[in-house]
């Protein structure tokens, strides 16, 4: 089993604010002013079978071993030798054998009267593990997975039956995974570092597929792929296929936002004996919020910067048989000069519709070849009728201005064209054509992601120690 026994060390440490609250320490003769007994549980190998962390927490699997620990007002932790014989204690700072499988939960509960008030768990790098305090403040368990091969420090604060603050500090190390580094699941994030438009999509390409048939693994992976921004926004991941996720806010990114994408997969068991590996983080920024909306029926494009109209451009779009796709698209790239040929979009050579032209100031919005570009041959039709083969054409001067104004990730929408809807994923970034409920339906976390994300600075603060309040 990958989660071999490594052990737990209990060390002497002051309980959080214990002395200042109670004003008492050890009594004469070594007696303590107050104490509570905690059951600290880790996962055992259950005869070769394995259960996901979620299943253990739901009580569906066996194999949880509990060690009885005494927390005192001085913070001097001691280990009760036998849970059935609580009077026999060992000295503090002894090693206690507990299973350390990273896939299983860490459970801390009261063995008698009292109240848990403070539980923090962090690894050797200072990263804190999320947890939840149960009803009545008698039980705590982690809500984020532990990592393989990590040393964790656990600090517990509590009150005994008389209300005296007590505490204990514990440390344990999870066993390293036996999975080779090359076989671990990693994520490659996109786009590249840089500045992008307000419609930019964050992508995560996985090194190994995670099938929809394993929703628990998908949920663990989503929780590990963290996206934060300044200012904070509401957003969620969406599974495009077994190896690809897209992330977007509920609405477009705010102008000048700074976006951070970080993987917490390293050492985390995602699926059955599938561990995460290290992934490179990503930081990019958002520029001005540029939105270009073409009304194909009015033959006009309106360009707005940060909500203010900066230019209205006469255009021509797709004619009958070549109608421009309707919906929201995102700038994929720009080519100052590109050769366009009809046979690349299914128009046969020798037919009246075939074309082979050098085109300037071409801004790509679909992978199949839809652009916004200069079309000097159709200037007379621009603003009057639709004569193109699906692209949005405009004068050379307007196309040059548009080319210089927009960047990758800027929003380019088409309305009233009569064309087929822009596909969400198959032909560029059509992600914005999905409503928010439909977007969340593609997340393994579902509505659980429907909450504002913490900003980068707020997240750093939130991951520090915090007092826990029992649920009511």
Can you characterise this structure?
The chain has 472 residues and is mainly β. It folds into three domains: 8-178, Immunoglobulin-like; 181-287 and 438-455, Immunoglobulin-like (Sandwich), CATH 2.60.40.3710; 290-422, L,D-transpeptidase catalytic domain-like, CATH 2.40.440.10. 9% of the residues lie in helices and 36% in strands. A seven-stranded antiparallel sheet has the order 5-4-3-2-7-10-9, with no helix packed on it. A five-stranded antiparallel sheet has the order 6-1-12-11-8. A hairpin with a 5-residue loop joins strand 9 (131-133) and strand 10 (139-142).
What does this entry show, briefly?
The chain is mainly beta and 472 residues long. It has six helices and 31 strands. It folds into three domains: 8-178, Immunoglobulin-like, CATH 2.60.40; 181-287 and 438-455, Immunoglobulin-like (Sandwich); 290-422, L,D-transpeptidase catalytic domain-like, CATH 2.40.440.
Keywords:
mainly beta; 7-stranded antiparallel β-sheet; elongated; Immunoglobulin-like; 5-stranded antiparallel β-sheet; L,D-transpeptidase catalytic domain-like; 3 domains; 472 residues
List the helices and strands and how they pair.
Elements: E1 8-11, H1 18-22, E2 35-43, H2 53-57, E3 64-72, E4 78-82, E5 85-90, E6 95-96, E7 107-110, E8 115-123, E9 131-133, E10 139-142, E11 151-159, E12 165-173, E13 187-190, E14 195-196, E15 202-206, H3 215-224, E16 225-230, E17 235-241, E18 244-249, E19 258-263, E20 269-271, E21 274-275, E22 282-286, E23 290-295, E24 300-305, E25 308-314, E26 327-330, E27 333-341, E28 356-364, E29 371-374, E30 392-394, H4 396-405, E31 411-415, H5 436-441, H6 456-462
Parallel strand pairs: 14-22, 23-31, 29-30
Antiparallel strand pairs: 1-6, 1-12, 2-3, 2-7, 3-4, 4-5, 7-10, 8-11, 9-10, 11-12, 13-15, 15-18, 16-19, 17-18, 19-22, 20-21, 23-24, 24-25, 26-31, 27-28, 28-29
């Amino acid at each position: 089993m990958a989660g071999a026994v490594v052990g737990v060390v209990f060390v002497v440490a002051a309980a959080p604010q214990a002395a200042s609250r109670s004003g008492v320490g050890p009594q004469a003769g070594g007696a303590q002013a107050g104490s509570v007994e905690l059951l600290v549980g880790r996962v055992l190998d259950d005869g070769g079978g394995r259960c996901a962390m979620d299943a253990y927490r739901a009580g569906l699997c066996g194999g949880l071993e509990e060690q009885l620990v005494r927390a005192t007002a001085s913070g001097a932790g001691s280990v009760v030798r036998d849970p059935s014989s609580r009077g026999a204690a060992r000295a503090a700072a002894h090693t206690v054998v507990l299973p350390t499988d990273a896939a299983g939960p860490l459970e801390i509960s009261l063995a008698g009267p009292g109240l848990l008030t403070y539980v923090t768990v962090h690894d050797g790098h200072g990263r804190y593990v999320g947890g939840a305090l149960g009803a009545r403040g008698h039980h705590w368990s982690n809500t984020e997975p532990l990592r393989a091969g990590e040393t964790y420090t656990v600090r517990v604060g509590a009150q005994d039956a008389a209300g005296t603050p007590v505490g204990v500090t514990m440390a344990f190390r999870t066993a390293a995974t036996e999975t080779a580094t090359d076989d671990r699941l990693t994520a490659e994030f996109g786009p590249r570092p840089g500045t992008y438009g307000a419609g930019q999509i964050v992508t995560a390409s996985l090194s190994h597929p995670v099938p929809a048939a394993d929703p628990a693994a998908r949920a663990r992976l989503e929780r590990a792929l963290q996206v934060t921004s300044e200012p904070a926004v509401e957003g969620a991941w969406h599974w495009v296929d077994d190896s690809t996720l897209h992330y977007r806010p509920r609405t477009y990114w705010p102008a000048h936002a700074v976006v951070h994408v970080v993987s917490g997969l390293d050492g985390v068991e995602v699926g059955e004996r599938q561990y995460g590996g290290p992934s490179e983080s990503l930081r990019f920024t958002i520029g001005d919020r540029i939105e270009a909306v073409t009304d194909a029926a009015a033959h006009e494009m309106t360009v707005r910067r940060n909500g203010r109209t900066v230019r209205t451009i006469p255009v021509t779009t797709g004619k009958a048989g070549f109608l421009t796709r309707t919906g929201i698209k995102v700038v994929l790239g720009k080519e100052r000069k590109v050769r366009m040929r009809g046979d690349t979009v299914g128009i046969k050579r020798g037919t009246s519709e075939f074309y082979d032209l050098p085109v300037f100031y071409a801004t790509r919005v679909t992978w199949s070849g839809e652009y916004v570009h200069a079309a000097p041959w159709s200037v007379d039709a621009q603003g009057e009728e639709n004569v193109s083969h699906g692209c949005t054409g405009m004068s050379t001067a307007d196309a040059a201005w548009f080319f210089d104004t927009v960047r990758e990730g800027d929003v380019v929408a088409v309305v009233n064209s009569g064309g087929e809807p822009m596909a969400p994923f198959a032909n560029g970034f059509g992600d914005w054509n999905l409503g928010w409920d439909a977007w969340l339906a593609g997340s393994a976390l579902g509505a659980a992601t429907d909450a504002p994300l913490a900003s980068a600075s707020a997240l750093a603060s939130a991951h520090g120690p915090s007092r826990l309040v029992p649920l009511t």
